Structure formats: C-alpha cells, structure tokens
C-alpha cells in the first residue's frame, strides 16, 4: 500500500537495489510512478527502445521456429504470376522438398513464395512464412501454416539462415538478390558450413553467373572457387537432390 497524502516521509528508502536517504527519498513507489505517469511518448521512438523491439523479434522468431524439422528456405519474386511456369515450378519444388523430408520456409508473400508454400501444404508438410513490414505488402499468403512477421530485415534474414539447411532461389528481384548474396557471403566467409545454394532457372540466372565469372572473378574481386558455392539447374529433382546430398540426407 502507498503512503496516504501527508504521511511522514521515511528517512531511508529502498527502491529495488537502490538505497535513498534523507532528502533523496522519493515520494510513492516505483510501481505507483509506472502506473500513474502520463507524459511524453517520444521515448518509444528512441534507439534504446528499438533495441528492445529488436530483441523481442529475435525471441519471438526463435520461439516459433526452434522445433522445426530440417528445413530449406525458398526465395523468389513476389511478382511471379500465379499459374505461370515459374509459379508452377515453385509449387513442384515445395512438394518435392517436403517429400524429401524438409519443411519449407519462404518470405511468406505472394508469387514464388506463395507457390513454394502451396506445394509444401499440398504435400502435407510444414509450410513456414517469415513476413516483413513493408508499405506495399499484403501480409502472409494463405498457404502458410506457421507465420512470423518482422519489422527488421536483418532479424528476418537471421531466421532464414538459422533454421534452414540450404536455399533454393527461384527467379526474383532485388529482395531475392539480397538474400542470395547474403547467403553466398556467409558461406564464403565460413559463417555457415554445409549450406547448399541452388539457383533454379538457367535462362534467368545465366547473365548473373556470366558476370560473376567474366567480370568479378576475372578482375580478381572473387576467386574461381567462389563459383562453386552455388549450383544452377532447371530440374526440380536435381535441385532437391543437390540440397539433400550436401546436407547429408
């Protein structure tokens, strides 16, 4: 109970681990100040508060995904039209990964991500979507069974890598390229090991591969060995076989 108004102020006050005496004694209690205070809300936009939000996103992600079975992250464009050949390839890949014993993790959006989640769900596997707060995204697709929405890209990308044993990358745009090169860098620098990366769609990826070989490697910006960090294929079974082989299945 708090002291009634007019009550004698104590000579000594303990507030958690803090001791206050004489004129440093504060009126009321910590709980009282917490519950009664109304004031400026700008503190919720400060960096210390953001640190707490970031921490909470890691905690929520770890808690939601810790008990997943072995999983593969599948990336690709949110703009891939439903029913097209790239979409149908995503569905087949999602199914084939489940049949090989994997859960399927995507960014949870539409397009190629939706296709892989759809294939995983139709094969009665675990279909996971890790969404991101964006002004133009419409939330998680309906084929996601376990979904986590993130504010911060870097937290989300940690989850993609931490809870997957490999990546399958369908044709995609800047976000897909970001995730692809993040994974390549982690493998190249030894931050992750035994982590297969498969690019699906030789026609789409051939220009990038040529540039890496003929410009980046040729000018000494990367080594010839770095071109072995990924595989390129047009075959669903081969993509799954490459992932399965490299993770020891």
Automatic annotation (TrEMBL):
SUPFAM superfamilies: MCP/YpsA-like (SSF102405). Residues 1-33 are annotated as: Disordered. Its EC number is 3.2.2.n1. The keyword Disulfide bond does not apply. The keyword DNA damage does not apply. Residues 8-24 have a biased composition (Basic and acidic residues). Pfam families: Lysine_decarbox (PF03641). It catalyses: 9-ribosyl-trans-zeatin 5'-phosphate + H2O = trans-zeatin + D-ribose 5-phosphate; N(6)-(dimethylallyl)adenosine 5'-phosphate + H2O = N(6)-dimethylallyladenine + D-ribose 5-phosphate. InterPro entries: LOG, LOG_fam, LOG_family_nucleotidases. Keywords: Cytokinin biosynthesis, Hydrolase. Belongs to the LOG family. NCBIfam families: Rossman fold protein, TIGR00730 family. This is Cytokinin riboside 5'-monophosphate phosphoribohydrolase. It comes from Streptomyces sanglieri.
């Amino acid at each position: 109970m708090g002291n009634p108004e007019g009550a004698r102020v104590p000579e000594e006050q303990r507030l958690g681990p803090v001791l206050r005496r004489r004129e440093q004694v504060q009126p009321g209690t910590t709980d009282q100040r917490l519950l009664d205070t109304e004031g400026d809300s700008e503190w919720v936009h400060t960096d210390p508060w953001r640190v707490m939000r970031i921490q909470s996103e890691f905690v929520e992600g770890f808690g939601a995904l810790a008990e997943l079975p072995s999983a593969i992250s599948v990336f690709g464009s949110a703009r891939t039209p439903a029913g097209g050949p790239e979409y149908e390839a995503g569905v087949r890949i999602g199914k084939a990964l489940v049949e090989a014993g994997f859960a399927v993790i995507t960014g949870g959006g539409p397009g190629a991500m939706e296709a892989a989640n759809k294939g995983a769900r139709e094969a009665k596997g675990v279909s996971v979507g890790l969404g991101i707060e964006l002004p133009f995204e419409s939330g998680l697709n309906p084929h996601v069974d376990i979904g986590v929405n993130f504010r911060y890209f870097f937290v989300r990308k940690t989850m993609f890598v931490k809870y997957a044993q490999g990546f399958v990358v369908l044709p995609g745009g800047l976000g897909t390229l970001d995730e692809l090169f993040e994974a390549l860098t982690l493998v190249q620098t030894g931050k992750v090991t035994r982590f297969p990366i498969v690019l699906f769609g030789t026609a789409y990826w051939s220009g990038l591969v040529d540039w890496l070989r003929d410009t980046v490697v040729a000018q000494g910006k990367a080594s010839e060995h770095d071109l072995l960090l990924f595989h390129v294929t047009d075959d669903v079974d081969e993509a799954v076989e490459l992932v399965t082989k490299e993770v020891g299945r």
